[in-house]
Amino acid sequence: MLDGPIWNFCQNRRWNMAARPHRPIPELTDRQIDRFLSHIQIGEPDECWPWIGARLKTGYGVSGINQVPHLASRISVRISTGKDPGELVVMHTCNNPPCVNPRHLVPGTQSENMFHRTASSTPDQPRWACGAQLPNAKLSDSAVKRAHFLRASGLTQRQIGDILGVHNTRISALLSGKAWKHVVVDREAFFSQ
Questions:
Q1: 105 and 72 in contact (C-beta within 8 Å)?
Q2: Each residue of 35-78: pLDDT tens digit?
Q3: HSE of 125 in the Cβ direction (CA atoms, 13 Å)?
Q4: Which residues pair with 124 in a beta bridge?
Q5: Which one of 15, 74, 110, 184 has the fewest beta carbons within 10 angstroms of its own beta carbon?
Q6: CA 30, 35, 41 angle in degrees (round to 5)?
Q7: Which residues pair with 105 in a beta bridge?
Q8: How many alpha carbons fall within 13 Å on the CB side of residue 43?
Q9: How open is the CA angle 126-128-131, to the nearest 5 degrees?
Q10: Beta bridge partners of 122
């Protein structure tokens, strides 16, 4: 079980990568590098290498150096280039947040990162992870459709939450369209049955 500053950092829901200045990454010892590498599932040189250590809710890996949390992708760039990315963000050319393969990581500005994210999205692939793609998702797209069907059948939000194993406030958010907006539900089909 993780505890201490790293765990608190990962659990802090208000942490925003764009709003916080990046902390400088110090020169790493061989022991710190070995520890970092032990949390990577290393594959072929051109494949994504997922971070298997602690992750933020957004899927990005996080690791501590001298009890200070840093994004795993930034540490990977530090190790591979020998330079701290400084104020630059680390862009994932693979669009895979857990990936720490140095071949997939490029330092750049925040506006370059946003341009890359928008340019690399396709109509069938959202610009960012949503719904079941999120690491802490409790529901699937089919469960969301089922929730709409159950509501149309007359069940309360609390009953639907009990059936699907989530709190009724989650059910309220998805039924009102505040969450799971990407799931297309044919409401007319529910009422015509």
A1: no
A2: 999 999 999 999 999 999 999 988 899 999 998 999 999 999 99
A3: 8
A4: none
A5: 184
A6: 120
A7: 92
A8: 12
A9: 80
A10: 125
Q: Whole-angstrom Cα distance, residue 44 to residue 40?
A: 12
pLDDT of residue 22: 78
- Locate 14 and state its tokens: 């208000």
Sign of CA dihedral 8, 10, 12, 15: positive
Type of residue numbered 112:
E
Return the structure tokens found at 171.
């059910």
The rounded distance, in Å, linking the Cα atoms of 86 and 76 is 13
Alpha-carbon distance of 160 to 142, in angstroms, equals 14
For 53, 151, 189, the CA distances from 147, given in Å and listed in that order, are 33, 6, 14
pLDDT of residue 15: 46
Each residue's pLDDT tens digit, 101-123: 999 999 999 889 888 877 776 55
Q: Is 71 exposed, middle or buried (0-12, 13-18, 19+ CB in 10 A)?
A: buried
Strand ranges in 66-145 using DSSP code E only, listed in sequence order = 68-71, 89-92, 105-108
If DSSP codes are grouped into helix, strand and coil, which group holds residue 130?
A: coil
* Separation CA 24–CA 162 (nearest Å): 46
Evaluated on CA atoms 117, 12, 105, 97, the torsion sign reads: negative
In the 8-state DSSP scheme, what is residue 102?
G
With vertex at residue 55, the alpha carbon angle to CA 54 and CA 56, rounded to the nearest 5 degrees, is 135
